[in-house]
């Protein structure tokens, strides 16, 4: 009993301390006497705008914009957050010493904390991807195609694995027993595409040999999505203080059993013998060592000291590389296939481009230059990414003691500033009068490839921290679509347009089934 009371006192003291700190911080902000953006009035104390924001984000944000203008603040989960649109968002990206994307990310998803690493741990990844992946994309182009094709074929042939994501219908000729038709019904399609995408990414990250290991590819495919239930814990404790929610997440993550830990252990187990073998060979061969081409090798070379290495550090670097790459790429590929069946009027021309390329190709795989020539497909991918963008995203945390926007409004240190991406991507001035329509060829002959990030296209962010993996991702999506289009007739299972699932400001690919009918057997 005494122990329980003691515990209760400790908790009470802890919460009081946090409230005191919040009060002091709040007063400190007030003392700065800033000219803050208008705070949209709200009815319920503490809850503020949280319910309206999550219930119908698009219309709520539109209404606030119409009534309060370019910059306004909302009270969400116990915190004032600021929202900017097409006029002010470039200032957030330009002033990267004042605003930080990673710091904002850490509030909701403290990955370094989950991994027991310092905040700087993830700092090496952008350069690693920029130099060794996107900067050397030619080294990976053939490998990605080989692994993608293998991955799709394996998934379809290997009924057991495939049945997890839908059904395969195989028809044989009754007299000759010859296979005449294969129809796949993928439901939900995202799970399938996660596997398709994970194998070539694994081949790039840890080498082709390891990417044949099904258990490993399974972990590459699922480590991010298995984490999502943890991220979806409603941050009710944020109403008291954001720190509390973060701490609960860390406790749940670090001390309770969860699928992420299982994937991490498996990845570590699989890469350990490979790293050890490579280090042995590096030591023995010295200058004559022929370095394997993959990200694992780059990290091994960077982190080893006298041919010994902390394998946990390499594992965690692999984990963050997977987090950055697999989920985003497979989501985007799934959106593409949904838009393809939603907008069949563009299919003929896109398919014709793929057939021409296929006919003109003399080798087994395409070169990077040939992939760049899939211009119609590229424009279609960019249009898909434009219309399926999250309504509000790219949250940045204010780092300096305060920041003054060009219209005079100011935000204090620690303020989360969100960008109204939906508004930018559907703005008639930025996107033309047809902004509301899906036009697969919007970017064709405009010198505006899918990888180009600018003030009218923010899917990959903008400025100093623009996604360094975007060239790799777009190439992978292009090759996957090229192969799927040439080999399958793709249809939807209903007559309705497939719409993304919407949670608050986020869009996720629909679970609506897709039908793939093999063209020629
Ligand atoms: C279609 C797929 C992808 C999408 C939509 C996407 C989107 C993004 C976005 C929005 C950002 C934040 C940019 C900013 O702060 O302005 C980002 C950052 C990043 N992405 Fe991607 N990404 C994709 C694929 C990849 C891939 C395949 C990799 C490779 C491993 C990757 C690696 C990274 C890294 C390392 C960063 C952090 C950059 C930095 O902090 O400087 N991404 N990505």
Short description:
52% of the residues lie in helices and 12% in strands. It has helices at 2-31, 50-55, 57-68, 89-94, 101-108, 111-114, 124-132, 137-157, 159-162, 189-206, 214-222, 228-231, 242-255, 259-285, 295-303, 311-342, 347-360, 368-372, 375-387, 421-425, 428-431, 470-487, and strands spanning 71-76, 79-84, 99-100, 166-172, 179-186, 393-398, 402-404, 410-412, 416-419, 488-492, 501-503, 506-508, 514-518.
Structural commentary:
The protein has about 525 residues and is an alpha+beta fold. It has one domain (about 30-520): Cytochrome P450 (Cytochrome p450), CATH 1.10.630. Helix content is about 50%, strand content about 10%. The chain is built from 22 helices and 13 strands. The chain has helices spanning about 1-30, 50-55, 55-70, 90-95, 100-110, 110-115, 125-130, 135-155, 160, 190-205, 215-220, 230, 240-255, 260-285, 295-305, 310-340, 345-360, 370, 375-385, 420-425, 430, 470-485, and strands spanning about 70-75, 80-85, 100, 165-170, 180-185, 395-400, 400-405, 410, 415-420, 490, 500-505, 505-510, 515-520. The strands form four sheets. A five-stranded mixed sheet has the order 1-2-9-6-3. Helix 11 (about 215-220) packs across helix 14. The protein is globular. The termini are far apart. Mean pLDDT is about 90; it is low at about 1-5. Protoporphyrin IX containing FE binds near residues 332 and 472.
Q: Main traits of this protein?
A:
alpha+beta, Cytochrome p450, five-stranded mixed β-sheet, 22 helices, 12% strand, disordered N terminus, binds protoporphyrin IX containing FE, oxidoreductase
């Amino acid at each position: 009993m005494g122990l329980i009371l003691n515990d209760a006192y400790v908790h009470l003291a802890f919460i009081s301390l946090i409230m005191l700190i919040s009060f002091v911080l709040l007063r400190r902000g007030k003392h700065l006497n800033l000219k803050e953006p208008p705070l949209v009035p709200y009815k319920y104390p503490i809850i503020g705008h949280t319910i309206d924001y999550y219930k119908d984000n698009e219309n709520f944000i539109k209404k606030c914009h119409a009534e309060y203008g370019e910059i306004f603040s909302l009270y969400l989960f116990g915190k004032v957050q600021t929202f900017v649109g097409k006029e002010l968002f470039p200032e957030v990206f330009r002033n990267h010493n004042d605003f930080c994307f990673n710091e904002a990310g850490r509030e909701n998803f403290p990955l370094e904390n989950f991994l027991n690493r310092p905040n700087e741990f993830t700092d090496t990844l952008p350069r690693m991807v920029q130099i060794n992946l996107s900067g050397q994309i030619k080294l990976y182009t053939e490998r990605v195609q080989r692994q993608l094709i293998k991955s799709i074929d394996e998934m379809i042939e290997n009924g057991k694995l495939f049945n997890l994501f839908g059904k395969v219908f195989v028809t044989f000729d009754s007299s000759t027993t010859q296979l005449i038709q294969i129809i796949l019904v993928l439901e939900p399609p995202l799970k399938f595409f996660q596997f398709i995408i994970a194998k070539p990414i694994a081949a790039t990250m840890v080498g082709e040999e390891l990417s044949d290991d099904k258990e490993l590819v399974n972990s590459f495919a699922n480590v991010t999505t298995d984490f999502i239930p943890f991220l979806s814990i409603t941050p009710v404790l944020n109403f008291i203080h954001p720190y509390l929610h973060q701490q609960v997440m860390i406790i749940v993550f670090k001390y309770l059993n969860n699928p992420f830990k299982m994937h991490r252990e498996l990845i570590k187990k699989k890469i350990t013998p490979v790293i050890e073998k490579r280090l042995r060979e590096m030591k023995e061969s010295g200058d004559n060592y022929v370095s394997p081409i993959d990200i694992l090798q780059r990290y091994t070379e960077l982190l080893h000291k006298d041919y010994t290495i902390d394998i946990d550090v390499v594992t965690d670097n692999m984990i963050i590389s997977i987090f950055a790459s697999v989920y985003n790429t497979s989501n985007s590929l799934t959106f593409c296939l949904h838009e393809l069946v939603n907008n069949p009027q563009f299919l003929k021309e896109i398919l014709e481009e793929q057939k021409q390329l296929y006919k003109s190709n003399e080798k087994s795989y395409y070169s990077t230059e040939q992939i760049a020539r899939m211009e119609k497909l590229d424009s279609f991918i960019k249009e898909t990414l434009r219309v399926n963008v999250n309504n509000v995203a790219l949250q940045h945390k204010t780092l300096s003691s305060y920041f003054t926007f060009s219209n005079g409004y100011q935000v204090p240190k620690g303020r989360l500033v969100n960008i109204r991406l939906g508004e930018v991507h559907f703005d008639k001035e930025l996107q033309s009068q047809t902004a509301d329509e899906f036009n697969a060829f919007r970017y064709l002959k405009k010198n505006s490839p899918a990888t180009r990030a600018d003030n009218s296209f923010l899917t990959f962010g903008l400025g100093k921290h623009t996604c360094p993996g975007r060239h790799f991702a777009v190439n992978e999506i292009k090759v996957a679509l090229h192969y799927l289009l040439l080999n399958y007739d793709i249809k939807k299972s209903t007559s309705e347009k497939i719409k993304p699932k919407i949670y608050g400001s986020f869009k996720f690919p629909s679970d609506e089934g897709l039908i793939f009918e093999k063209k020629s057997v």
